[in-house]
Structure formats: structure tokens, C-alpha cells
Amino acid sequence: MKKVSPIPEDRNAAFRRTSPYVFLCTPVGPPLAPRRNAEAPSSDQTNAARRKRRPYSIFKVTGFRNCTRFISIAIASLALLASARAELTVVSAEHREAAFFKRFSEYFTGKENQGRYTIFRSDPSRRDGFYISLIAEKGSPLEDVTSVRIRFVRPASQDIDTIELPVESIEKRRLLFGLTETEWADKGIRPVAWHVALLDQRGTTLDSAQSFLWSE
Questions:
Q1: Has residue 30 been placed in a domain?
Q2: pTM strictly above 0.90
Q3: Is residue 22 a part of any domain in this protein?
Q4: What pLDDT, on the 0 to 100 scale, is given for residue 197?
Q5: Domain presence at residue 41
Q6: CA neighbor of 136 nearest in space, from 85, 89, 200, 93
Q7: Hey, how many other C-beta atoms are within 10 angstroms of the C-beta on 145?
């Protein structure tokens, strides 16, 4: 009877079985699953993936709108600041005697030395009275001031009195406005409320200051 030869084995398998270094050649773990050819994505899936990878396409529209809105707000704010007039800073509002304004140089020149102030008085011939001390901010348009308007309410009265004084020039930022008529010589008399405004030649208010109780 003719013997049937066995099916020839894989040479590598025979080597792994007979080699003493089989532990180095035998893979550990389950065999890897064969790769399968993935199906080609559709055009809709491709477009959706592109939109996910490139969100800047949406940002371009919304970012541009936000940018233009921010620029518009910034321009409006700058215009508002440019149109807003500066306010004078109130230093004090108190009675001052004539001796306060007497300086040593006046004995020789006969003229009042105003020092660091530009002084305005309702009665230039008198120095005793109620004075309002103010400071103008840097950059305040003092060179455009042509007149000063002082409005005040006398004690025990509800009427508003107005005094307007002409201005030749203002070269100092410290301003002193005095009510120096005879009635104001008494230290116990002071206006209930007051308002000071620096005006240009058209009557427009450039700078102003007011007391706490003043209301239009």
C-alpha cells in the first residue's frame, strides 16, 4: 500500500517548533485582526468634517461684526469726551479780610500783588468779602474766556442774583471770585448757594463750578 506524504508545513512554523529560541520568535497575545478597506466617506460627511476643522469661517463673520461695533462705540465715546466741558475744582468758599491780600511789594508799588491767583471782585474798590477759590484743570481753555458770571442766592431769599464781570486775560489756573459789596463784609453773611461760570465771547460756558446746594 502506497504511503501518502503529509502536507508540507510552513518552513517558518517548522523552525519555530524546532528552534530553541522559539520564545523569542513566537508573538505574545492574540493575533491582530486583518485590516479592512474603509468605505470612502460621502461628500456630505467630507463637508461636515471640513466645517469642524475650520471654525474660523464662522468667526470671520461674527468677529467682523463685533469689531465694527466696538469701533463705533469707541468713536462715540471719544466724541462725547471731546464735547464734554471741564469742571473747575472748588478749593474753598470762605470770608477773607483785606489784610489777607496785602503784600510787602504793595507798599512800594501801590498796586495789588495777586500772587498765584487771578482775582475777580464784584466791587473792585473793596477787598473784604466772601471769596470762592477754584482751580482750572490743565488744558482748560482759559485763553478763550471773555467774561465771568457769578450767580448766587442771598441769605433768607429764594431769588437768584447774577453778576457778570469782564475778563481781559487769565494767565493762572488758580482763580479767586469775591463778593465784595458792603453787605458781604460781615463774616456771618454768606450765600446760601452759588454758581460760577467762565464764558467765551458767544456766552457759551467753558468751565463752571457750583456749591453743594445749587440747583438749576
A1: no
A2: no
A3: no
A4: 96
A5: no
A6: 89
A7: 22
